[in-house]
């Protein structure tokens, strides 16, 4: 009887054997949409003040010019570029989310595989797309069974899980064999890290989710030279990934089963608002209410009660604790207030001046966020469900319920909405509509590109 394969071995054999032709067309289309969204978020992020600090600090410590910093004319080392570009994607709460895994996948992997492919100089569009598909898919598979457990334990979901996907992508670009890939994962898993407490106020929130993918580059390069890692990195009972981070909660078949037939990356949704994903169903509900009841003004509202899951409540900042743009983006009360007062919760609603507006903060104090046991017990696919009670001064109460936020796979963007978001964000860094159109067109036809460096060049300022 043959010995049972470890989880990392099963994933590694899939990673080294996948062909471009094996990826279903609908999966490739969704992947490209998610990637375009990620590049748009990254271009916008390159213009934020916190990313300037991060870029200046990292680039001052290397003279290498291996990979581009998107939205700029600069190049730096591949590891610095990976960390800067990945963090830029996460820099304004605009990046994608895998529902069950609770991870921002582009933040975790796109900066890494793009920067590494650029450094290698001779990667074709098809080769890059296969590597990207592996990075996204394996990240989602590692995270999917344990999203809620990781979050409740206080770990950063993206930072702890996406290192494995990035390793698969980088390892594929390097041409690792299955044994080398397995060791690469066993090395890079030691970079799995991140604390949920970083969510609530600090600039560090922007950089944590992508930092661990540095381990993907180091691990893959070491494994190519024969360096060995933990062969059972996921299931080892003393300090293996799932035992360490989730107290032995995992589902091997959700992570490793039906490889190539079931695509977990299809569960990635895009964001329509500049806030934590768990607020989006609330925003959708309030925007619909505002449109249907234009006669009801914010001052007519006595209070709002939002019923949600315990983890969503934990992810909310009270109105009186809003100290930064980050904390406003994590604040359910602020998001409710700005949506009802301004009709949206996009980039213009999260500025240093706006988050200090006394009228917005006064309204935010009317909002209460509560655990709802009924919502808590729904299937994880419905974890964004909210019930909203809007109490008016005249005694009337409106009850709303929303299950899937705009951009969720069950409530997806139209192609027009995708391009609108990409160009709106991208224009902050590259003020050239025609060039932004070229980026989108090139990505949608990336399999025809002989060298992916020509695509990456479009992400740079001229």
Strand order of the largest sheet: 6-5-7-8
CATH topology of the largest domain: 2-methylcitrate dehydratase PrpD
Tell me about the largest β-sheet: 4 strands, mixed
Tally of strands = 8
Helix/strand-derived class?
alpha+beta
- How many structural domains? 2
Cα-to-Cα separation, first versus last residue? 61 Å
Percentage of residues in DSSP E strands: 5-15%
Assign the CATH architecture of the largest domain: Orthogonal Bundle
Q: Share of helix among residues? A: 40-55%
Number of helices: 22
Shape: globular
Determine and state the CATH class of the largest domain: Mainly Alpha
Mean pLDDT: 96
Uncertain segments are none
Give an overview of the whole structure.
- The chain has 462 residues and is α+β, with helices and mostly antiparallel strands.
- The protein folds into 2 domains: 7-271 and 437-458, 2-methylcitrate dehydratase PrpD; 277-402, 60s Ribosomal Protein L30, Chain: A.
- It is 49% helix and 7% strand.
- It has 22 helices and 8 strands.
- It has helices spanning 7-17, 25-45, 49-59, 78-89, 105-120, 125-143, 147-153, 157-174, 178-188, 208-211, 214-224, 241-246, 252-256, 280-292, 310-314, 325-329, 332-342, 358-364, 373-376, 415-426, 433-444, 453-458; strands spanning 67-68, 75-76, 97-98, 268-269, 301-308, 367-371, 386-392, 397-402.
- The strands form 3 sheets. Strands 6-5-7-8 form a 4-stranded mixed β-sheet. A two-stranded antiparallel sheet has the order 1-2.
- Strand 1 and strand 2 (75-76) form a beta hairpin.
- The mean pLDDT is 96.
């Amino acid at each position: 009887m043959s010995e049972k394969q470890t989880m990392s071995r099963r994933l590694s054999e899939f990673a080294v054997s996948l062909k471009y032709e094996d990826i279903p067309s609908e999966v490739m289309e969704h992947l490209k949409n998610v990637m375009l969204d990620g590049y748009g978020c990254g271009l916008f992020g390159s213009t934020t003040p916190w990313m300037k600090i991060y870029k200046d600090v990292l680039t001052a410590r290397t003279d290498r010019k291996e990979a581009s910093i998107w939205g700029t004319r600069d190049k730096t080392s591949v590891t610095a570029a990976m960390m800067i570009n990945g963090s830029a994607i996460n820099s304004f709460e605009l990046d994608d989310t895998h529902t069950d895994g609770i991870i921002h996948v582009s933040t975790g992997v796109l900066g890494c595989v793009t920067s590494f492919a650029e450094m290698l100089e001779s990667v074709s569009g098809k080769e890059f797309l296969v590597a990207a598909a592996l990075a996204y898919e394996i990240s989602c598979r590692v995270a999917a069974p344990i999203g809620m457990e990781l979050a409740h334990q206080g770990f950063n979901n993206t930072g702890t899980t996406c290192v494995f996907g990035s390793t698969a992508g980088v390892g594929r670009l390097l041409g690792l064999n299955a044994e080398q890939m397995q060791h690469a994962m066993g090395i890079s898993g030691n970079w799995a890290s991140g604390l949920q407490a970083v969510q609530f106020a600090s600039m560090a929130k922007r950089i944590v989710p992508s930092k661990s993918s540095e381990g993907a580059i180091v691990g893959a390069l070491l494994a190519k030279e024969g360096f060995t890692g933990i062969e059972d990195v996921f299931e080892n009972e003393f300090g293996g990934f799932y035992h360490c981070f989730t107290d032995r909660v995992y589902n091997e078949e959700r992570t490793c089963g039906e490889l190539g037939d079931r695509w977990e990356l299809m569960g990635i949704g895009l964001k329509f608002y500049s806030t934590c994903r768990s607020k989006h169903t609330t925003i959708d509900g309030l925007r619909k209410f505002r449109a249907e009841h234009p006669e009801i003004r914010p001052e007519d509202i006595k209070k709002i009660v939002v019923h949600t899951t315990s983890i969503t409540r934990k992810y909310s900042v009270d109105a009186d604790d809003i100290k930064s743009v980050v904390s406003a983006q994590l604040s359910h009360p602020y998001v409710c207030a700005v949506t009802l007062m301004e009709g949206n919760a996009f980039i213009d609603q999260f500025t240093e001046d706006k988050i200090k507006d006394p009228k917005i903060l006064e309204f935010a104090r009317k909002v209460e966020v509560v655990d709802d046991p009924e919502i808590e017990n729904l299937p994880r696919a419905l974890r964004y469900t909210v019930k909203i009670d809007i109490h008016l001064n005249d005694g009337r109460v409106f009850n709303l319920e929303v299950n899937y936020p705009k951009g969720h796979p069950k409530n997806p963007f139209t192609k027009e909405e995708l391009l609108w978001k990409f160009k709106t964000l991208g224009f902050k860094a590259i003020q050239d509509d025609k060039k932004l159109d070229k980026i989108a067109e090139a990505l949608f036809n990336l399999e025809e590109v002989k060298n992916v460096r020509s695509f990456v060049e479009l992400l740079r300022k001229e």
